[in-house]
């Protein structure tokens, strides 16, 4: 039985703003920003150049929010307020330049870079096709931002004990060949550079994170993840081949991506699935999502998984299937503005929610009362 409730929330927006004209970052071509506000009221900004899509900027913000979401009953992640506060106090910032990284041509800004070419939006062609020339580096780079500024490496962070455990395990992983596998001659030099920079821990745990959330599961050019530099390609392989890395990751992060809203590319057509399907390689990644939102105006659909999904349609007509779990669909308007007949919900306001068919949805919520 579907229950219908009212909720007060802002209508869906990417939430990207223009940088002030007097901003020093405009000299490097950065014109827009979004942010995450730490519990201490200070900002953790994300700045982007003009050519970077707003939805890509919002995706990075949502990944940072996911990393900073509390994970009850974990050793280091149960209360991340001190981590978020440390990030803000350390002036942590993510910058998103256009194009791809070129050594020696990085913007001269003290910020963690996340280049446009390595930021595939969920549901985009790069994402669906697992395009390795545009591999998803956002999980890695945004965790680097949190790691350095929040957990604490060369800056004072909130979790020095966790950092020491990560560093110790990174060194052990090199000794027993779980990580730093020399798949090409450059890897050895890279490891030595990391050792000199005291950043082995950051790169090791980032490799575990990428495989844990399915980013390398479809990679068939070599065994393992991160181009073969890390021993495990999938979550099951991590459990088997790197249980210490698994334990360290799960001391801070959750199995499912609670706190992350997946924003589906407006050009996506078809059904975006949060269920694993071996015939849809992208679902190695999307299987771990909990919340998803269709954007744009195409008549596309959503298929939830066995988590308690929160799902949103777009301007077009959508079929939204929650799958298993206790699932919620959110509409932007007031209840009285919708015509409801059985499992079909029609928005009477043009250009907002369209007509949606709901399957296996337990709760309908309206953003306006």
General description of the model:
It is a single chain. With 369 residues, the protein is of the alpha/beta class. Helices cover 28% and strands 21% of the residues. The chain contains 10 helices and 17 strands. It has helices at residues 54-67, 81-89, 125-128, 138-152, 160-175, 185-197, 200-212, 235-241, 243-250, 283-286; strands at residues 3-6, 17-18, 30-37, 43-49, 94-96, 112-113, 257-264, 271-273, 289-294, 301-303, 310-312, 318-321, 328-334, 338-341, 344-347, 355-359, 363-368. A 6-stranded parallel sheet has the order 1-17-13-11-9-7. A 6-stranded mixed sheet has the order 8-10-12-16-15-14, with no helix packed on it. A 5-stranded mixed sheet has the order 2-3-4-5-6. It is globular and about 65 Å long. Mean pLDDT is 95; it is low at 1-12.
